[in-house]
Specification:
globular, Immunoglobulin-like, eight-stranded parallel barrel, alpha+beta, 8 helices, Glyco_hydro_2_AS, binds (2S,3S,4S,5R)-3,4,5-trihydroxy-6-oxo-oxane-2-carboxylic acid, 592 residues, 18% helix, TIM Barrel, EC 3.2.1.31, Beta-glucuronidase
């Protein structure tokens, strides 16, 4: 699925803005066919945004089930002969879409886009109505999984239920990414795949173009590579081929050079469709205990992040997005992980442009009770149906993100119960699917298990491990960090002989809390902890990256160990630096 871009043959109409919104208190709107008529008794709701924090109403914030969004739009008759597509950047977690009262598509999975051609449902030159039913319930067949707890005890009124989940971020819901209409010609470029290679100074782009629609086989395909100065540097005719650029510029954090790949369909000498894909020529490889970018070792400096901000929740906002990239640059980071789900494509586009490397993660998180008596991989929990959905999500993720130079690794899950025997078969199938779809990028499964207990260490190319020494274990015992961490990391390497990224480490820190000597939750404690982790990393040459948990404070469900959310941010939720930010800036701006 190509990211919508305007060209001379394609137009975009952004439907973001203020929509009508209605809570479906009893979850009966679908049965009662609310979509047939304009919604009644609505309130205004911004799109994109999570709906949870927009109003003062706890019933909306904590609702379990369906909500409805609606807006009107016009389509002029200038679009009559075009293919009109409605695209939802994401709706969390399930959605059904109706155009003028007709159901046109449904989708499961809260972090990936879906689209449908709606040309035949549109009325031209009059008002049209789009209605989107969004459902936030998580069960064991979803990613991330969750479950509904029904209370049957004297302490809760009858029928009381809660949405439970095992992951550590708030289950925000709503339409989180832009909703747009876009057009293409009736016969159109439906997909492009590029794989780049480097031979000395030569850059090679292997490409494949798919054309769909009427008489698509008759169209000629012309592919041109244009450099930043607008100069044509390579050209080819054909739906697939190899483009060579002598003396190419290679994409890397210090020089995120993007060529423009212009793809055109042509009939009788007339260009009908044009799509322009930004292409960065770069390679990623694992060799011995190193991660190589363009055949040179690269050390990842950065964070686990979240899509999270005040009021907006998980809604994409260009203000937050650009601010975050500015902070990444300011602090000297070169990478982040899209913990714990695929982020908006707009974020990946920025990363391509700014030279930020990304570990792209599937929304498989919360597959662990951290209690060995509670199995996860079993008939009633993570089972065949979950696996089927996981594979579907992997397909959608790779289809969406395969062409981004910034994406250097796939993470298929975070902190699953990989110590369970059944985890091996499950993840083998998931990793096989990734390899089948993309053999050019390393794959990881982010671990909380220990090296001697994991069953999946042999499935991955890079070991990613999350560890919280002196926080969740041996609270306050900073002096144990180096002893414990070094021992563990050496064991990982001894067993698997693969490069290691410490993909999470950190301490909850309330900005403004101070203590010397450091105690937990103070800014000094966060600094001291990081420094001790770093001393170990600097001693071990198989450690190829450090991603601190987390970039910024973020919202979680309410719990006694969460002080208005998770406070492990190096920045506050409002993106102001804690003391650790200055420590990291010094380290990362110096460290190669
Ligand atoms: C983890 C999880 C992350 C949590 C973090 C924490 O291991 O991967 O989602 O937020 O720990 O702070 O507990």
């Amino acid at each position: 699925m190509l990211y919508p871009r305007e060209t001379k043959s394609r137009e975009i109409k952004d439907l973001s803005g203020i929509w009508k919104f209605k809570l479906d208190k009893e979850n009966k709107g679908y049965e009662e066919k609310w979509y047939l008529e304009p919604l009644k008794e609505t309130i205004p709701m911004p799109v994109p945004a999570s709906y949870n924090d927009i109003t003062q109403d706890p019933e909306i914030r904590d609702h379990i089930g369906d909500v409805w969004y609606e807006r009107n739009f016009w389509v002029s008759s200038a679009w009559v002969n075009k293919r009109i597509v409605l695209r939802v950047g994401s709706a969390t977690h399930k959605a059904k879409v109706f155009v003028n009262g007709k159901e046109v598509i449904e989708h499961k999975g809260g972090f990936l886009p879906f689209e449908v051609e709606i040309s035949k449902y549109i009325n031209f030159d009059v008002e049209n109505r789009v209605t989107i039913l969004v459902n936030n319930v998580l069960d064991w067949t979803c990613l991330p999984p969750g479950f509904i707890k029904n209370y049957n005890d004297p302490f809760h009124p009858s029928g009381y239920r809660t949405q439970e989940y095992l992951f550590d971020f708030l289950n925000y819901a709503g339409i989180h990414r832009p909703v747009i209409l876009y057009t293409t010609p009736k016969t159109y470029i439906s997909d492009i795949t590029v794989i780049t290679e480097i031979q000395d100074k030569k850059g090679i782009i292997n490409y494949e173009v798919k054309v769909e629609g009427q008489e698509c086989d008759k169209k000629e395909v012309r592919v041109t590579v244009v450099d930043k100065e607008g100069k044509k540097v390579a050209e080819n005719i054909g739906k697939s081929g190899i483009l060579e650029i002598s003396d190419a510029q290679f994409w890397e954090p210090d020089n995120p050079y993007l060529y423009a790949l212009k793809v055109e369909t042509i009939e009788d000498g007339v260009v009908e469709d044009l799509y322009t894909l930004p292409v960065g020529i770069r390679t990623v490889k694992v060799e011995g205990n190193k991660l190589l970018l363009n055949n040179k070792p690269i050390y990842l400096k950065g964070f686990g992040k979240h899509e999270d901000a005040d009021i907006r929740g998980k809604g994409y906002d260009p203000v937050i997005a650009v601010k975050d990239f500015n902070l990444l640059k300011w602090i000297g980071a070169n990478s982040f992980r899209t913990s714990h789900y695929p982020y908006a494509e707009e974020i990946l586009n920025l990363a391509d442009e700014q030279g930020i490397l990304i570990i792209d993660e599937a929304p498989a998180v919360g597959m662990n009770f951290f209690n060995k008596n509670e199995k996860v991989f079993c008939k009633d929990r993570v089972n065949e149906e979950t696996l089927k959905h996981h594979i579907q999500v992997i397909r959608e993720l790779i289809t969406r993100d395969k062409n981004h130079p910034c994406v250097i690794m796939w993470s298929v899950a975070n902190e699953a119960a990989t110590y369970e025997e059944e985890a091996y078969e499950y993840f083998k199938k998931v990793v096989d699917e990734v390899k089948k779809l993309d053999s050019t990028r390393p794959v990881t499964i982010v671990e909380s298990s220990f090296p001697d207990e994991t069953k999946v260490g042999n499935l991955v190319d890079v070991i990613c491990v999350n560890r919280y020494y002196s926080w969740y274990t041996d609270c306050g015992k900073l002096d144990l960090i180096e002893f414990q961490l070094e021992k563990e990391l050496k064991r990982w390497y001894e067993l698997f002989k693969k490069p290691i990224i410490v993909s999470e480490y950190g301490a909850d820190t309330i900005a403004g809390f101070h203590s010397d000597p450091p105690v937990m939750f103070s800014e000094e404690y966060q600094c001291e902890m990081l420094e001790r982790f770093h001393r170990v990393f600097d001693r071990l040459d198989f450690v190829v990256g450090e991603h601190i948990w987390n970039f910024a404070d973020f919202a979680t469900k309410q719990a006694v160990h969460r002080v208005m959310g998770n406070r492990k941010g190096v920045f506050t939720r409002q993106r102001q630096p804690k003391a650790a930010a200055f420590l990291l800036k010094k380290r990362w701006c110096e460290k190669k």
